[in-house]
Amino acid sequence: MAASRPARVALLEQLQADGVTHMFGNPGTVEQGFLDELRSFPELQYVLALQEAAVVGMADGYARTTRKPAVMQLHSGVGLGNGIGMLYQAMRGHAPLVVLVGESGLAYDSMDAQMAADLVGMAEPVTKWATRVVDPQSVLRVVRRAMKVAATAPYGPVLVVLPADVMDENTEEPVVPTSYLDTASVPSAAAVGQAAQLLAGARRPMVIAGDGVHFSGAQPELARLAERWGAEVWGADWAEVNLPADHPAYHGQLGHMFGAASRLTTTQADAVLVVGTYVLPEVYPALEGVFAPGAKVVHIDLDTGAIAKNFPVDLGLVADPKQTLGLLTNALEGVMSPQDQARAAERIEVWGREKAAAHAEAVAKDVQDAETRPLSMALFARELARLLPDDSVVFDEALTSSPALGRYLPPNVPGNWMSTRGGSLGVGIPGAIGAKLARPDVTVFGFTGDGGSMYTPQALWTAARYDIAAKFVICNNGRYHLLDQNIAEYWRSQGITAHDFPDLFDLSRPAIDFVRLAGSMGVRAVRVEKAQEVVPAIVDALAHAGPFLIDLVIDRDI
Fold it and tell me: Which of 484, 498, 530, 549 is deepest in the core (most CB within 10 A)?
């Protein structure tokens, strides 16, 4: 047994033993005991944020970048409540977060005390696991379990409730590093052979892939399989680089909103390989008919809940994507006929030519539009791509501006691009801050909209306080433009004649002064309204040693 000391001290010793260097949080009275002890742990930096959604967003960006558990502290029921929406975002994106939430104590359970709440019950829908420590002799055991659960595929947030009176009790529990799991499991040779037999003869093969590929590091294996099989690769629950956007097989992402739209694509395949996602993560998913009649479906994932979650499959393999995709490609090469292999190679070649031609056409249109239309994301992204250092990181919450951004800064390098997922607005600014903390030696640009930015503008203050030199771009079109697009699709689906968009989607009255807002929190900022202002703004942002914000006014007359 270790020497006796308060559990609040032992907690920090455990985090230290696990190599935790940052704790993101917003302090409260019921956590003040262990937070006060941070003075004795200078290697554990507390990153202060002014609102809990920003706390979670920063930890989310940090965890996604490091692919290790990020620790955060929230304050009782009210603080956890403020962070719930962003925790949902983290859960959907499989971010390994460990959320420590304080409460007044076990002694007050019967008192209906101020700020008291069923914290575990609140958190269960948005976490992999949620629990409450009730014994000071088990604090470290619970924290280690939380770290392990968060970092085991499928990754995700976990919550540990820390009652103050438990944390003030002494414990002799020893500190030992958390035991993490090796999940690089492989299926049997017979199962791989069966998968190859199911898929080999396809004339219209398709891969539906998600972020489980990224977490496994299986990007090269997915590329090789797509090339050998001659398969279209479509993304679902895709917010990381699972296949370079420039790869000929990559056809884009399936819609996250309407299953009827995705079904038009997925029913074209006569054989489907699903890997690292489930079918299908949409707001209005199709309830039937996602695959063509008779199409063979094979699903590979470490997440047992994802396989055959909504629709049956012909074969499900609970296995590591990286290991399994390599084995499956070898098996396919052994059973595909020479004619099938030739057709696969031809498809890849054709798609490469078509993709290059489409890109050239889009760029030409951007150049033409720049002469006649208001300032656009395309013009800004073209200049940014020209000036941005190699190995820069992009955190993309640009939403309706994302296609133009990706045209010039394509998400090709794993770890250098990540996007929002989960539907909770506001992750762009804090996510970029977390990414910059994790990778301080590279340039990090975070993109968000004027609407999304206002969910977590407090994060700018944190960037200034700790001199976190992330760069931010507000795609300021004066609207919730994504809602314009979604309601237009709704009108079409319901046979409603198109009409004026609802006035409540408009954000221009009153106009938000993002330059003054950023400046009030210590972040240098500039407003860009004209094409000739773009390059000077980017140059200033890159040259500035601290955080910098560009208010990019796009797609409207000034």
Answer: 549
